[in-house]
Amino acid sequence: MQRRTFLRIAGALPLLAAAAPPANVTLGDEIFLSQTWRELNARRVGVITNQTGVTSRLETLVDAIRHNPAIALRAIYAPEHGFRGDRTAGSYVPSYVDAATGLPVYSLYGPTRHPSEAMLHDVDVLLFDIQDVGSRAYTFISTMAYGMQSAAAQGKEFWVLDRPNPVGGTQVEGPVLEPSEESFIGLYPIAMRHGMTVGELARLFNDHFSIGAKLRVIAMHGYTRAMIWPDTGLQWVPSSPNIPTWQTTFPYIATGLIDNAGVNGGVGTTSPFFYAGGDGIDPDALAGRLNARNLPGVYFRAASWSPIAGFWAGKELRGVELMIVDPRTFTAVRSAVEILCAVRDIAPHQISIKEPASLDRDWGTTSLRLGLTAGKSADTIMGEWRPRLEEFEDLRSRYLLY
């Protein structure tokens, strides 16, 4: 009897758990739910969202909307990794009817990446509520841009419910994407580390890149550019399978860019993006070379690891672990370039660019690959990016909200 009573109490514990602590930022979706929804005037809405589209109390936007019978929610649109965030990178995302809500979930990472006319037939306003990570090379902002394009073409309004940039809004790092390298992971010529929120990016895309949608950005309250994720007081929901924590967003912008040069970045381990190395590298030599560069905010520890999944699965790799001691000063893109140049200099056989087009696509430029293979220093490579980066910084300043 005592055991049965204990089990009943234990089963009830999640219902009694404390709510998420109050945050320092009021999200765009919370402003929408408390105030702006009234301006829909009974128009029908669709929501482009995934598991990150939650309030500060971790209620999903979809559930919160369904609790308000005055909002006519008609459809959900799912990006890469799916509505629930359970699909691996690059995996096909199907369309289906969601069992929990009874709503159609239309895939924007399947047969089409643009919401089609049929998908938007029953919708007047599209809402976008997805957490970005601050890197150009992340498909959610391309999904937003495609949604804006479809909304413009089909006469629908597009509302962005703004969210913080987890790596902050003050640092901007190149390269700026070259138009010849346009792809779904880099759609417009913006900097790799853009230092903007999704709402600010939407304003830039819509105006400067001439999407021309009827755009509305629901801005946050309490957010400042200097904030990184822990300053917001918000709880992190994994934005994709390899971004499990807010801390991961910082090295992602660095080592997420090196795998197509033949250097493993830790994907397939329990600490994705916190490693850099390969199967023929002296870890002490690499750590010594990188630490001698005195890069801000990071210390490189000689390390060994063996991925359990992916291309490198089961291989014994050696290199460095990125110990990001000060994320506020950490220069992610510079660190990536420094890692590649250091590997090239101490273990040139490790640099293996089997698909040049893929590396160029990842970086949005041919200059990284050409500079790396020509033996140029990290300073020289990054110096070549400076003129276009300054142009972007000037452009960016016109669209900032905070």
Note poorly predicted spans: 1-17
> Which descriptor suits the 3D outline?
globular
Summed over residues and divided by their number, the pLDDT gives a mean of 93
In which order are the strands of the major sheet placed?
Answer: 3-4-2-1-5-6-9
Overall number of structural domains: 2
Could you spell the SSE succession in H and E letters? HHEHEEEEHEEEHEHHEHEEHHHH
Report, as a whole number of angstroms, the end-to-end distance: 59 Å
Query: Count of helices?
Result: 12
Main beta sheet = 7 strands, mixed
Radius of gyration: 22 Å
Tally of strands: 12
- Judged by helices, strands and strand pairing, the structural class is alpha/beta
Strand portion, in percent? Answer: 15-25%
Question: What does the model show?
Answer:
The chain has 402 residues and is an alpha/beta fold. The chain folds into two domains: 8-232, Uncharacterised protein PF07075, DUF1343 (Rossmann fold, 3-Layer(aba) Sandwich); 246-385, Aspartate Aminotransferase, domain 1. 31% of the residues lie in helices and 15% in strands. The chain has helices at 2-16, 28-34, 61-66, 140-154, 198-208, 229-232, 249-255, 283-291, 332-346, 356-363, 367-373, 378-397; strands spanning 44-49, 72-78, 96-97, 104-107, 125-129, 157-161, 173-176, 191-193, 214-218, 275-278, 298-305, 317-324. A hairpin with a 6-residue loop joins strand 3 (96-97) and strand 4 (104-107). Helix 8 crosses helix 9 and helix 11 (367-373) runs antiparallel to helix 12 (378-397). The relative contact order is 0.12.
Write the layout of secondary structure elements.
Elements: H1 2-16, H2 28-34, E1 44-49, H3 61-66, E2 72-78, E3 96-97, E4 104-107, E5 125-129, H4 140-154, E6 157-161, E7 173-176, E8 191-193, H5 198-208, E9 214-218, H6 229-232, H7 249-255, E10 275-278, H8 283-291, E11 298-305, E12 317-324, H9 332-346, H10 356-363, H11 367-373, H12 378-397
Parallel strand pairs: 1-2, 1-5, 2-4, 5-6, 6-9
Antiparallel strand pairs: 3-4, 7-8, 10-12, 11-12
